[in-house]
Amino acid sequence: MTKIMFFGTRDYEKEMALNWGKKNNVEVTTSKELLSSATVDQLKDYDGVTTMQFGKLENDVYPKLESYGIKQIAQRTAGFDMYDLDLAKKHNIVISNVPSYSPETIAEYSVSIALQLVRRFPDIERRVQAHDFTWQAEIMSKPVKNMTVAIIGTGRIGAATAKIYAGFGATITAYDAYPNKDLDFLTYKDSVKEAIKDADIISLHVPANKESYHLFDKAMFDHVKKGAILVNAARGAVINTPDLISAVNDGTLLGAAIDTYENEAAYFTNDWTNKDIDDKTLLELIEHERILVTPHIAFFSDEAVQNLVEGGLNAALSVINTGTCETRLN
């Protein structure tokens, strides 16, 4: 019987993974550990592996997988910047992802967290906790229908986000290297700077790559409309975090909502209750009154989890049986 290791198992995924195994006549072993130099030897007797990595995979894992006869790694996220695709190819390892598992879920989250800042929820909550129930200009907002929203990246998630904002009646600008002709209700601009210059809300939906690394840094924030709101539910590396904090502090940005952080791997998805966080930048984000931080959770719905579990396992089995899969990256 074919054997697949399901690394990075969450408690709520285990039953889904085992049920998939029964339906497909595959022996699925679940493990809470992640694929790494320390765990790769567990795969000696397996045919395939699926995992949910957040940090960079060590280079020595690829040749070990090759030596064990394993031909693939099925990543259970859309993002894949934790893998060296060229090195994997050199060792005959097919890397795959799950590019679309519930774009609407992430879009809904991106909009809802933006609305918290638009309607000044953090300020209102602090006032109520202090028993200040007055109405003040500082907590007055304006309707989204009177706002301009810039969507940076109009793939599946960005497109779904744009459609939600369109429902509010917002004016929508966008930038994407490959414009989506079906989104005829928005206006594409020739550059990110052009797209954001009049935007009240900037919503990021781009992958992590060389072109997008620290795309939003001080130089980019200099082109932002004063008092704009920035939302990042894409990849942490798209933002230069110290520059973001500075932009909020000096009033360039009214606030920011980030669901991803470039150095999140050590912390996000882990319980750090009663533990010291050594990352001073992360602490500054968490403690900032005008920055909302969530732990890479925008995708987290029952539909998305089911699709990620099955997407990873389906890709692994496809490569085992045919040598490739529809979501192959290298």
From TrEMBL:
Q: State its Enzyme Commission number(s).
A: 1.1.1.28
D-isomer specific 2-hydroxyacid dehydrogenase NAD-binding domain mapped to chain residues: 112-298
Return the Pfam families for the record: 2-Hacid_dh, 2-Hacid_dh_C
**Gene3D superfamilies given in the database record:** NAD(P)-binding Rossmann-like Domain
The top EC class, named as a word, is oxidoreductase
Q: Tell me the keywords, alphabetical order.
A: NAD, Oxidoreductase
InterPro entries (UniProt xref)? D-isomer_2_OHA_DH_cat_dom, D-isomer_DH_CS, D-isomer_DH_CS1, D-isomer_DH_NAD-bd, D-LDH-like, NAD(P)-bd_dom_sf
- Protein name in UniProt: D-lactate dehydrogenase
Domain (D-isomer specific 2-hydroxyacid dehydrogenase catalytic): residue spans on this chain:
20-330
Which terms in the Gene Ontology molecular function aspect does this entry carry? Answer: D-lactate dehydrogenase (NAD+) activity; NAD binding
Question: What reaction is this protein's catalytic activity?
Answer: (R)-lactate + NAD(+) = pyruvate + NADH + H(+)
